[in-house]
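Hypothesis: this fold can be encoded by more than one sequence.
Test: take the structure tokens below, design a sequence, compare later.
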């Protein structure tokens, strides 16, 4: 059984998926499986994944029967995962070579149900843009409601501590998952080290700030069932942090 199962949804990323896979294969920690759930790509994405998987059995292609979005693709990968730890990596993002090794040691030290790290942004030509996105040392459920600190490509879940893991088919399904874990009384811990590269693309699901804000509001009201007043209070804090996070300096 691999110790870490890496959860990756993919859709029409034939020009990027190989580099993402290579960033996993280059990890200093090697006891992993990479589960890539392809969401009915119309380009050569699944063929590229299958070809790499034929040479490295740790890379596993899951073909979705119909296009359902990243939440359902992530859930398909989670359903097949064998590892104690779940790490999340989108199909256009990258990890630095010591990401898994450093974060695993940190998560074990903290006995963390959920951990996350700092990261930098890159553009479509792999140029680093902006500053290091630093993270707070810890987050509770109430704090995460007002925060944008846990980027998907930096998150790691210890299933033995966190309990059952299930994605909600919502915009920002990842945010819903982190909240569901912390709502059980756990605290998330942040490793403030530069270990990942988040690729900013105009076509990415979360690239539109107005839509992102709408998704967060819907999570407050329809998933977490917060009151109107508490939703507005959390949203004001979330919006301010989101604006600061998007600034490049």
């Amino acid at each position: 059984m691999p110790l870490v199962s890496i959860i990756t949804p993919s859709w029409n990323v034939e020009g990027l998926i190989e580099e993402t896979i290579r960033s996993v294969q280059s990890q200093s920690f090697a006891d992993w499986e990479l589960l890539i759930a392809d969401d009915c790509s119309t380009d050569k994405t699944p063929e590229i994944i299958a070809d790499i998987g034929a040479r490295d059995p740790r890379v596993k292609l899951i073909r979705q029967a119909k296009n359902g979005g990243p939440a359902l693709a992530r859930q398909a990968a989670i359903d097949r995962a064998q590892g104690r730890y779940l790490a999340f990596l989108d199909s256009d993002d990258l990890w630095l070579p010591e990401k898994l090794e450093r974060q695993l040691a940190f998560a074990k030290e903290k006995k963390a149900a959920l951990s996350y790290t700092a990261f930098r942004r890159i553009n479509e030509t792999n140029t680093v843009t902006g500053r290091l996105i630093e993270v707070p040392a810890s987050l509770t459920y109430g704090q995460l409601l007002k925060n944008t600190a846990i980027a998907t490509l930096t998150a790691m879940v210890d299933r033995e501590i966190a309990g059952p893991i299930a994605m909600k088919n919502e915009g920002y399904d990842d945010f819903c998952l982190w909240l569901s874990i912390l709502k059980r009384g756990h605290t998330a811990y942040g490793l403030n080290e530069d270990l990942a590269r988040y690729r900013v693309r105009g076509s990415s699901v979360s690239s539109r700030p107005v839509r992102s804000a709408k998704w967060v509001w819907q999570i407050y009201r329809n998933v977490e069932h917060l009151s109107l007043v508490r939703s507005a209070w959390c949203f004001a804090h979330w919006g301010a942090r989101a604006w600061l996070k998007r600034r490049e300096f």
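The two ends are 43 Å apart (CA to CA). Residues 12 and 67 are 11 Å apart (CA to CA).
Hypothesis status: open.
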